[in-house]
Design a protein that fits this description.
The complex is a heterodimer of chains A (255) and B (99).
Chain A (H helix, E strand, L loop, with lengths): L2 H6 L4 H18 L4 H13 L9 H29 L13 H15 L2 E2 L3 H32 L6 H27 L5 E2 L3 H24 L2 E2 L2 E2 L1 H26 L1
Antiparallel strand pairs in A: 1-2, 3-4
Helix pairs in contact in A: 4-5, 4-7, 4-8, 4-9, 5-8, 6-7, 8-9
Chain B lengths: L5 H8 L7 H12 L5 H13 L3 E3 L9 E3 L1 H25 L5
Antiparallel strand pairs in B: 1-2
Helix pairs in contact in B: 1-2, 1-3
Classes of the chains: A mainly alpha (255), B mainly alpha (99).
Organism (chain A): Actinospica acidithermotolerans
Protein name (chain A): DUF998 domain-containing protein
Keywords (chain A): Membrane, Transmembrane, Transmembrane helix
Chain lengths: 255, 99
């Protein structure tokens, strides 16, 4: 396949529909020196879903809500990894806040940004059906794992324990991915996106919660035994997610 | 925005009237001596459209020209006036009269 066409496939569909033909013609004329720029531009667009070509302001708000919800789930996964590595993060021993309290704060933000089902029977039924279809696989996996752990009781350092741990994280990641897909792909006939003020406030709450979690995690990075690599990675991940939340908030304010 | 910012250059190129992507880049080359990469050009157009500063017209010969919106004209004028003030102050400081 033509390399320019391959690079174009990396762009979001909404962008390709609007500018794809013109971009392909210009990039083919510019030759291979345009390829790094095409790659960078595609990555930049994926970081800013709010600016993609849209039919209405409400579609942009829906995209912002879906992106912020996806980041919230990513924050939850990173935070879960951090607390699994260092359970002290959920204590309040020497801190004014702990990770669990930040998670509750972020839950408030997630509720604020969530698109609301339209008050019709059809819309609620469609949303429920979509949710059940998307979450069936992770729910079955989780249930199967619980049963297996209950009956097999794998020893802490056995190969089975490693397999169960890997399956646990796979199930969490799959559940998060499917939940994000529900919010991102649900039809506008079934939900209404949040109003601008509620959306901005919700994203600001999420960014604050994520930044506070990063700060708490950062405080446990340096221990008496030296630098804790997992805590450092968790803090770095949380800081990147905070920056991403803030860039979505800026896009919402500008568009 | 800055003088060499892709979005400012695109707005400047559109100041004389509607153009399609290739013609915008040709106008930018005339203005600055170099073209924007296709990724930068269409990325800038996407951002400007999202901000409501440019709008698409109907397709002509498989190309869709874009034009400044009234808000785009207002923003461009403000940016250019601010740049002109900075340029004039800098040139005065250097003891050079503006060309």
């Amino acid at each position: 396949m033509n390399p320019v066409r391959l690079l174009l496939r990396l762009y979001p569909a909404a962008f390709r529909e609007r500018w794809g033909a013109a971009l392909e013609a210009d990039a083919s004329a510019a030759g291979r020196r345009s390829w790094p720029g095409l790659l960078a531009s595609a990555a930049d667009l994926w970081l800013h879903p709010v600016i993609w070509p849209a039919a209405s302001a409400s579609q942009r708000r829906h995209r912002a809500a879906a992106a912020a919800f996806t980041l919230t789930l990513a924050t939850w996964l990173v935070g879960r990894a951090g607390t699994a590595n260092d359970p002290r993060l959920t204590w309040r021993a020497h801190r004014a806040l702990n990770v669990a309290e930040c998670a509750a704060f972020m839950l408030l933000g997630a509720i604020m940004i969530m698109p609301l089902p339209r008050p019709t029977r059809q819309a609620v039924t469609a949303l429920l059906r979509r949710t059940l279809q998307a979450l069936a696989a992770p729910a079955v996996l989780l249930f199967a794992e619980l049963i297996l752990v209950h009956f097999l009781r794998p020893a802490a350092h056995s190969a089975a324990h490693l397999a169960f741990t890997a399956l646990y994280w796979f199930t969490l990641a799959l559940g998060a991915l499917q939940a994000a897909r529900i919010v991102g792909t649900v039809s506008s006939s079934a939900v209404t996106p949040p109003r601008p003020a509620r959306l901005r406030l919700g994203i600001a709450v999420l960014a604050t919660g994520c930044a506070l979690t990063a700060w708490i995690s950062l405080s446990s990075t340096v221990t008496g035994h030296g630098l804790d690599a997992v805590s450092a990675a968790t803090s770095g991940g949380m800081l990147m997610l905070t920056a991403w939340f803030l860039s979505i908030l800026r896009d919402v304010n500008e568009c | 925005m800055q003088a060499n910012d892709a979005q400012t250059l695109v707005l400047c190129a559109l100041s004389k009237g509607p153009l399609h992507g290739y013609a915008i880049n040709a106008a930018i080359e005339e203005l600055t001596g170099s073209r924007l990469g296709p990724g930068s050009l269409y990325g800038a157009l996407t951002r400007l459209e999202a901000k409501g500063l440019v709008e698409s017209l109907d397709e002509v010969d498989r190309a869709r020209p874009v034009q400044l919106t009234p808000e785009g004209r207002r923003v461009l004028e403000g940016e250019l006036r601010a740049m002109a003030r900075v340029a004039a102050a800098g040139l005065r400081g250097l003891g050079v009269s503006p060309a």
